[in-house]
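Slide 14.
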Amino acid sequence: MKRCAVAAAFLWAACLGVSAWGQVGRLAPVDAGGAEALLAEPLGGENVAFGRPGADSGTVHPNATVARLTAAGTPIAVAIDASGPQVASPDVFRLDFTGRGRFEEGCFVPFKLSSQGQVTTGRIGPGTVTVERNGQTVPVGVTGNYWKYGSRRILQLHLISVRQGDCDFGGTTRRVRLVDGTGNLAVNDVARPGQQRSAGRQARMAVTRAGDTVVVDLGDGSFSGPTARGLVGHPIHVGGAWYTVEVSDDQAAVTAKPFAAATGQVRVDHGEWTMILASRDHVFPLAGGTGAIPLPEGLYQVVQYGQRTPVEGQNRVAVLGCSNDGVRPPIVRIKAAETTDLAIGDPLAPSIRVQIRGSSVRMDFAVADAAGLAIDGLGLPTGRRPTPKVTIRDAQGKIVHQGTFEYG
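Slide 15: predicted structure.
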């Protein structure tokens, strides 16, 4: 691991060390390992401003470039650099968790650059750096991607940190993991649901701010068996009851507060799926198979849905992704002690959208799922299917046009 010393003035206060384990309600930083946030918000964006580093930046290559990012209000500086001044191509991605753009020698992960035509791409990490906070060591997993096309630079950077401890759930002590989903190295960010409106479209529910993840071990505390997963500050179903898990501002304490709600269930008839449901106050990232999943009684909208489907009985899958963007959002009503079956995902319904402007006719091939959600991603194990063909006939059945749709 690469070590980064960071002054406490620029980051959250340190949580208790590993010696705090065994004290119910206390948290300690642990290695991120393969932890994943349910709602991960990458840092960067579509037009990241990279510039020349300062004289005291600590970068070593004459062509190094620096950008400053913000993770849920926390400043972070990054640099594309090389491991030595004579290295021909950038090979390290440096991080400065103070945001000042002063990069320490050991705080970096591998960076692999490649070019094809006018497009340059870079793979960040994977790797782990450690941040020193008042004597506490916080491991941070680093991974991401970089693209450059002309003057445009796109960056998607994921910073994953995890804290772990024991927490009381209604008299039962369970091991919990808190996973940072916003990249600010804290685990008390609460996801925020809200309505989004755009011109010509009706309002729809969305996750307007990402949040952190809580994983509750339901077995021996090793996280190798069954777990309950949810979001910090939102209801999570543990041991037949509802709780909200909260983390103190200093990241040192965790509590599970009872949440009063009648319980119903939602069921999706697919073998492997994920879904985000949002109500006025809460967000539920769900994952399951054909079994029913508990939810608090209430009214929800589908924000996103995805599924993996076996192809022709072989060890291959098609990956489907869709959202409520631009369509009437499916409503899910959960009633106490009842199971709601939700028709969503495949079978898919293709359609043709026609736009007529003067003598010009434009036709777009669209696909929706069983709930009417617009398909915005479809990965097939054999690559793209052949482009659809279209035939237009007049009222007498005479062919007036034939053509082929194009991808894009």
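Speaker note: The two ends are 42 Å apart (CA to CA).
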